[in-house]
User: Fold this.
Amino acid sequence: MAYIHPKVLDDLDFGQVLEHTALYAVNEPVRRRILNAKPYTDRRDVEVELYRTDEMMRALQRGEPFPPAHFESYDKPLEKMRVEAYFPEPKDFLSMAGAVETLLQWKRFLKKFGPDYPHWNDALSLLAIHPEIAKEIRNKINREGQIKDNASETLAVIRSQMHEVFRQRDEAFARVRKKYEKAGLLDEIGESYLDDRPVLAVKAMYRRQVPGQVLGTSRNGTIVFIEPESIAPHTRRLQNLAADEKTEIVRILKNLADFIREYKNELQDYADFLVEAGFAEAKARFAQEIDAVLPRLTTEQEVFLHKAYHPLLLLKNKEKGEPVVPHDIHLHPGQRILVISGPNAGGKSIALKTAGLLQLMLQSGWPVPVHPDSRMPFFRKILSDVGDHQSIENELSTYSYRLKNMRLFLRLADAHTLFLIDEFGTGSDPELGGALAEVFLEAFQKSGAYGIITTHYNNLKLRAEQLDGVLNAYMEFDLKKMEPTYRLITGQPGSSFTFEVAARMGIPWRIINRAKKKVDRAKVHFDRTLSALQDEKKNLRQNTEALQRQTKALEARQKELEEQNYRLLKKLDQFRQLYEEEHRQTEAGRKILQLFDQAARTGDRRSLLKSVGRWWEKEFVKQSAKPSKTSSAKKLQKTKKEVSQLLQNNDVRKQLTKIEIARMPYVPKPGDRVRIKGSSANATLERIEGDKAVLSYGRFSATVPLQDLELVMRK
Assistant:
């Protein structure tokens, strides 16, 4: 059995959420749908509603919103069409045509994007859309709501005749006006219209000189408005034609109503669909305003609200430009009840209302302002006791009312219940009320229900520590600043900071000290201990957060150094490859010069050509066995410059030296025959300068990093 009393909606300010959402309604039917929204009683219904709203949100975020769901309501005309003789006004027919045309836009949209929005695609596929409805209406009625001339052949003939009679009347009136104007019988205004009939503005003294029907006089009686006798036949003809026109229009509308009546069920379905679409769009736009998301819907009874905000407080503080502290609330089978303590005005009630309101919103189909990793279940029953409920009508005190509520709560509480009780046990003698509240807490714990309780009673804090599935929590208070931080901390009870809050509100310390003397020392000591523990936990949390920030900074720095190291090694490898290419070309040039010198000494040119040919064949085979390398002075200079810039960073150089030298298979020493890794050219290690080695290649030398060397032969 599902049970969510309307009082729960009032206690948790759900109505204000509806009012804010209704600001995004596209029309009155959608606005009514929003304001009448209530939590669903079936989990499957709320899931469908949530998924549809989530698809609306995704469409808005992608910049490809659904077609507008705006349409003028035609519920009442459609209902009256059950009577055979009834026909709607032209504007109501246009509303029906607009609904059909809007659904055709939806059909085209979902034909293109349907796979991205499966729930709306499924909903639209259930509708049989009839374009002929809109076509028939548009054929008869123009966009201004007037019946078209060609709506019927009879109407076309009547209006053609009317047009001709109007022309004849206007010509006759123009002639008679000119005649009497020339005779000086008319007033300055000359003419006017009364009841859509043209009249002459005749000076009162000449009224008998103008034959015709007097239709009125001016306020001061100096002008008489006369319809000339010569145009009276035209007026009578027009009146007859107007009556014929009205009769034909009624016939056309009745025929149109008979045509539409066959589709009245479909038209009702169209209106219902568009109202639901407008409802989902309004929720999606409200969700954007409060940064709401669809959390993970769980089948397990687990509430995990991470970075949860009270939506109304979020809106209020956004207007003021003030921050809102989010809450983390976790309820699960091993931790079902949360007992929140702490100072007055510290945020206990807001934390409780946040959890309750978000659950109501979710079960009514609203996204909620939480972190996307949050998890929320479906509760069959939600119970609340929040605020002062003194009942004058029933002569019930606050405490009597609360006892009546507790009786109901105890009867309904089970594993599918979420209960929310603010200031648990108050309203009676503290010791007696506290004892009774303790028994209630034990009963709730045995029932398997989930809930959040706020309290100042120390006995409840102690009992919460002893009961399985019950967890203490408190609202943090900054003793140094003497003000609440509004952070919810779980794991231990909190002090009420009664005397500290009193001092903050300006109560003199001499009064506070006198009050302390009147309180049992054990209670003062207990409260002081809680206060000290809370302050110590706050300092520990701040130190932990600082340490976490430092750790993150160090990890980021380490990652940055590793990336720099990688880039440096990559540049060094490029440098090595360029160096080898330059060395190969130098060796090739040296070899060719040797051959030329030899040929010059012997004078044997044939021998030179043979020697060059043999050398070229060997070199060609050697170079064909490995990928070709292109080298240029520009590329070499650019690489050297980039390497030099990287090596100017001390951290990079130290990191590189530490990592790479540690990996070297031997310790280099001057005099060793070495080569650069991957190179075939041998060199002599002349000396070591820090993390660099100076190599001799005979005619030239080079300075390279130590870690790039490999041993050929010891000295």
About this structure: Residues 521-602 form the longest helix (82 residues). The two ends are 92 Å apart (CA to CA). The CA atoms of residues 691 and 706 lie 6 Å apart.
